[in-house]
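From the shared-data thread, chain only:
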Amino acid sequence: MKGLAMLGIGKIGWIEKDAPKYGPLDALVRPIVVAPCTSDVHTVWEGAIGERTDMILGHESIGEVVEVGELVKDFKKGDKVIVPAITPDWGSINSQRGFPMHSGEALGGWKFSNFKDGCFAELFHVNEADANLAHLPDDVDPVAAVMLTDMTTTGFHAAELAEVKLGDTVCVIGIGPVGLNSVAGANMMGASHIYAVGSRPDCARVAKEYGATEIINYKQGDIVDQILSKTKGAGVDKVLIAGGNVDTFAQAIKMLKPGGAIGSVNYLGSGEFIKIPRIEWAVGMGHKRINAGLTPGGRVRMEKLASLVQTEKYDPSKLITHRFEGFEKMEEALLLMKDKPSDLIKPVVII
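Structure, as tokens:
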């Protein structure tokens, strides 16, 4: 089979590989819609998780089942499926501890384009199909649904990590596709004032549509100063981090109220340490909590997210700004994600 792979740090290209083998609980899937991710950019061009050689990229896909193992009960050949970016081993100890995204090891549920070939291929393997695939509802557009696999679930998870509650004031740092979903998630969880930090007009527009009450442009001054000014010095109850770098945590701590929480889902592609300002952290005793994590995966979460689309409470299609037609367009779409033009939120490839 053919696939678009990371050849090494800073290098991508098309390669040929044998079709993956599958076990009795697993499935082989053919992608019908895929989307490149900033995570792919971090992985390839920053070497964020180390050297990878001839590893097929991609972890966001809507697909069609091609083959299933003999013990798979709920899926069959021809089924259209949502394939989450995170496909845990559900029997692992960490899954039983409540952290399936870390099954086996830290980040172990993130298999595609981490330590296993991803979905930018003619076929890809899905472990534990009954637990890790979700049926695509007939009334949900597969192009829009591909956003659920990573962008939606990851953005919403920032709000979950911070435990956004009714009436909370929230700052979302970074309003790319994940941050926009953090805005949407905070809004659904009952936040009142939602300050969205970003500068690109298209992102700002969608942030408003998803529930942001005000846009904070980092090009117009320090974001901490702007937030403290807007809140009359009080700060915010919650900070959701979906962009920035290792220094962003210091800004989050400075704008956070005592007893507040940070929910971070940002993939930190570079930097050695995260610095926490001692005084603003109330010399370590301010009950300013930092919760950072990889999104959960699996079937049930995808089904619940799809139900939000079915009931028209959430529209993931707002994220899609660029559409490509054809398998061979995966490379062009990925390079667009790397270059990140000002009018880009998220590209998709329709196969």
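Residues 2-150+295-350 form a domain with the Quinone Oxidoreductase; Chain A, domain 1 fold (CATH 3.90.180.10).
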